[in-house]
Amino acid sequence: MDENKQAHSDAPVDAPALERRDFLKTAGLLGVGGVAGAAHGKFGLAPVMPAQAQAAAPNPAPPRMAETPWWPSKWGANDEAGASNHITPEKVLEAVRSIRDGRIYKLGRDYEAAMPLFGTRAFALRIPGAPTGGPFGENKLVYNDEFLATEIGQVGTQFDGLGHIGIQMGRDGDKSEMRFYNGVTGAEMLDANGLKKNGVEKIKPLFTRGHLVDIQAVRGRMLDAGEEISLADVRAALQRQNMQESDIRPGDAIFFHTGWGSLWMKNNDRYNSGEPGIGLEVARWVIERDLCLTGADTWAVEVVPNPDKNLAFVVHAELQTKHGIHNHENLVFDQLLADRKYQFVYIFAPTPIKGATGSSGCPIAVT
Amino acid sequence: MDENKQAHSDAPVDAPALERRDFLKTAGLLGVGGVAGAAHGKFGLAPVMPAQAQAAAPNPAPPRMAETPWWPSKWGANDEAGASNHITPEKVLEAVRSIRDGRIYKLGRDYEAAMPLFGTRAFALRIPGAPTGGPFGENKLVYNDEFLATEIGQVGTQFDGLGHIGIQMGRDGDKSEMRFYNGVTGAEMLDANGLKKNGVEKIKPLFTRGHLVDIQAVRGRMLDAGEEISLADVRAALQRQNMQESDIRPGDAIFFHTGWGSLWMKNNDRYNSGEPGIGLEVARWVIERDLCLTGADTWAVEVVPNPDKNLAFVVHAELQTKHGIHNHENLVFDQLLADRKYQFVYIFAPTPIKGATGSSGCPIAVT
Amino acid sequence: MDENKQAHSDAPVDAPALERRDFLKTAGLLGVGGVAGAAHGKFGLAPVMPAQAQAAAPNPAPPRMAETPWWPSKWGANDEAGASNHITPEKVLEAVRSIRDGRIYKLGRDYEAAMPLFGTRAFALRIPGAPTGGPFGENKLVYNDEFLATEIGQVGTQFDGLGHIGIQMGRDGDKSEMRFYNGVTGAEMLDANGLKKNGVEKIKPLFTRGHLVDIQAVRGRMLDAGEEISLADVRAALQRQNMQESDIRPGDAIFFHTGWGSLWMKNNDRYNSGEPGIGLEVARWVIERDLCLTGADTWAVEVVPNPDKNLAFVVHAELQTKHGIHNHENLVFDQLLADRKYQFVYIFAPTPIKGATGSSGCPIAVT
Amino acid sequence: MDENKQAHSDAPVDAPALERRDFLKTAGLLGVGGVAGAAHGKFGLAPVMPAQAQAAAPNPAPPRMAETPWWPSKWGANDEAGASNHITPEKVLEAVRSIRDGRIYKLGRDYEAAMPLFGTRAFALRIPGAPTGGPFGENKLVYNDEFLATEIGQVGTQFDGLGHIGIQMGRDGDKSEMRFYNGVTGAEMLDANGLKKNGVEKIKPLFTRGHLVDIQAVRGRMLDAGEEISLADVRAALQRQNMQESDIRPGDAIFFHTGWGSLWMKNNDRYNSGEPGIGLEVARWVIERDLCLTGADTWAVEVVPNPDKNLAFVVHAELQTKHGIHNHENLVFDQLLADRKYQFVYIFAPTPIKGATGSSGCPIAVT
């Protein structure tokens, strides 16, 4: 038995795991000490390698920054809609009143096979038949469908649902101690055919005021991978744009422009290798201001790798898992910036695929 | 050689074709005389069976109702956006001004494997890994994706793109004589990996006034399959709802409630077997009023089978292919009707999957 | 916290879980007392409902019949090939010597969308483009591909790999206590992109003597769902077929004909509702005789529901998980039986999809 | 109208087409003059660019080398099994008699996402749920499935079916003049949900003598892309291996080792950029010898680009479309060569996916 166990843990890590590790390496998540670092970080915790994390000997240490249960949610112990609960009729009317010129800007990118994809995600679109059916009738009608196979809610411009991100409490690999938004466990939520709780179909349509901060303009250049947007950056951008911080109100959405999106389909390898973004400082400001959603022209909105090498996508956990605040990735702000439109109405109704972890679609800004 | 050809045309039709034929049969498209009918219709054309339509001996007759080329489009010979061109800033502001109470209604249904699917379309959602990745970092983050394989833009609540429907001109099976919106040929448009023209990503976000007519209320019952909504029905509904026909303006959207949607996931077989809907009479009224979009609580908006048994989905061709007028299927109006909200702002930005024939998503009504 | 937990466990079970439960119900797995039964069975264990099994309150009882660790395998602690290790050159030559007339029989069925599928599995085949590419060159070559989305190794005629079936030891939902062939844990084996151990690509090509027992002929009728094939049945069939039990040697394959396969695509609902098959008695005989593989004209080879209502697919676990003995489902023996060919060479090389749980393909019998 | 047509043909070629063209370029198919060449070739035909080939103005010239109808097949006008008809009981027994030592060699590669894929083909494997189901019963059984989305029969080690390759006769894009094996037209064969004729399920299981020629050994180096294997090469290899050409008999299979396979997953870009292989000279020898199948350690078996730049995959058309001779790609011969086993029994039963264009699986060699 012991001998057998030994054999398993000594076995070389196979290709699928390697692929992910390779990705994390290129994404800057595997530095000197792996995802969790050999240097043990400023909190002095033991390092956790991803291979170990999924292997036979689980890490007995509790996850950092998850000491206090974050549930029940302020929207109730059964809530699955998170910060979309902000979108009340009053909030909608407030947004409507801010519309001035009736222009619509698409904030989303086209979905296509050549777009940068995280890790091993795939995107394959096919037109069956061409035409798919017909001709039918004396009017000789023909029709075309498209067949798509993909990680639909987690490719391209994507809205993270509340079942996307969780924290492994307790023992690694124990679904009954894996916690998601509102404390829902993996055991309660996970199913091979779709999430049983926190599915993206539970999110209410978003229709709220959006505020765009141009961090690239503040810095005078595109930010680099691993470069964190500070609260000072945000405030400098607001000032530069003649905006008041106090005008960013509960239930509003905040968007960060870094310039990183200029790499999209121009240099996918670099685009995927990491990204600039917000860290815990700005995340806490977002929480304090009680916002509804964050968004950016990057694939994760948050800084990757995190300056604290022991942390992986910690802003996701802080905003989404603990506070139900939504996140919209791979957005485009170019035309808004060209027109100096920093405030607008952000409209997005997630595609209600039952049990999905996120949503594709085309968010729009109306000015 | 001749002998060989004979052999082919005598061969029994195989299963995939049978499946489609079976569907068409249940959908009422194959009556006494097949899709095109044995009675030869009022135009005296020869009948066309679907199996023949795809077989060696093509029908030499030109398609009915396609005598006159419908291109170039009034939006220009290169246009691929169709009636979404109606959505100008002025049109958006007109819609915004109509918002009174800030309530949002979801017009779309949840997407799930149990929903009724047309023909052989499929919908399979899977959660890889559960969790898909992690735990990563000392914060022990885990994440979930979803993998979806489906006719994405043609399942559930669906918006038809301009590459979905076409007409086979010339010889059956000849892509250079197969015509779509703006006269684009199959040869120009079709590709195994996505449409080269008329892809749904070309449609502009829709933000316009919507008008809902409750035909079920006028009739005092759910309409039945094959039952055509007349213009008189539409006018009676407007009158009953205290609405003026003249208030339906160019670029607006019109929605038809038939009650057929009550069968959704209650009786999928009946739901798929046909449907009530508009015919050519109302379609021509929609064209005259220069509307932007039609929608209904049915899977095709138009009456199936058509009262003229020789015609197959002819309203699709009339509105979409010839006039670029969009179509939104499998909608839900129950809450709007309960609240007697017959006018609202219809907002929908198609998911811009490059080269797709349609779009999933969640259209909303704002009142 | 407690309140919150309460809320979760009180929440209604959602649709995906219901679908599976519905399936299990039609498959006879959910009788009076659910999968594990209200009667508590002869071992007096508490009942376990599938919904509970995946819910917040895991069943603390150890799994029945898994008391003794079954690892390491007799083929070594690192083995991932199981009983395919029987296929040595000597074994191949023994099989070759038994070939008499050079006839090949296909034991596999065609794969198509209309075949019966277990639970929520899907099968969607599409021809992209039609043609997919071309014409290319002056020779005007065109080509077609097929795009397939499916549970490839677990649909239609299917060979179970060693990562397909496991036993939840320890706490429900704890991957580090979920055990597969050779004691490999879920934590070691499971990955979103394919199994890291026990993938079907590790199985050696099978080329061995096969023995077919016609249980339908012994009983004089098609066996019914839930009807267990006894060892006496097997022996009666051997006698009827003039075969010696002693001629079934280590490494050979055994096949059971029940007649259930006659329902294939004739009555899929009944076919899926359960099946006749072997139980633990015959399974233990298979283990004693040290065979390589079991097969049948049913979707699981074993009796479903098990006469002991508390057990679910226990023969799978006994043969595959504990002894590495392979299993081939949804086979066809009609022509072999018509020709009274009860002994043949069974040849099957699993499709080596890295990290897959099973394999499609076409096993053959050579006589 | 004319103006409109002009607009279409002037429109820039969009991305999907570009992707394919890019691929063909890297594959050497687009040289100075495109697929069909600017030099007009030795037959003086006009050049055909792929974009034109699919565009509005079809090439009116008949395809080169398709002057004479190649149908009906020598196996009858209705035959869909092609050269697999060679596999008679006598042929099987002949093969069986050649087995000496009972060793089995896998000729197929593992299928995985990292393998080189032609053009835009995709391969995505996911494990739903992990586990996919359970625990069920008091025995706490769990199970795993895999979900696969891919061009199943045209990725990795692949066997070409008779519906894979055809020739566009008549007008480009006209399915009624697109011809496949046995003269079947595109109109008769193509369907969105699977081929209606010439599906791979019609092929009989292959069990025949295989002959391997090591061209790399003859040349003393790996052959390069675009390097054609001559008949003299084949004869030199036979001589070097002490084999008689006359021993290669009707219905046998011939395999070519070029060394190109050493690039597999080592240098996918180069692997995909072209390949060494046979040309029309050896193809005609294969036809004369009345063989059953060709195979190689390359992705097409034939030389790419063809030395005659106007021809695209012409060996495919010559062998498969016109003569029904099968083709097996991306094979591995390393162990056979190491053991100097140049003759063996080749066994492969295509996975009978109804209407598929090819087959994955694991061909084996038995010595």
TrEMBL record, chains A, B, C, D:
One GO term (biological process): L-tryptophan catabolic process to kynurenine
InterPro entries listed in its UniProt record: KFase/CYL, KFase_sf, TAT_signal, TAT_signal_bac_arc
Gene Ontology molecular function: any one: arylformamidase activity
Protein name as catalogued: Cyclase family protein
Species per Swiss-Prot/TrEMBL record: Salinarimonas soli
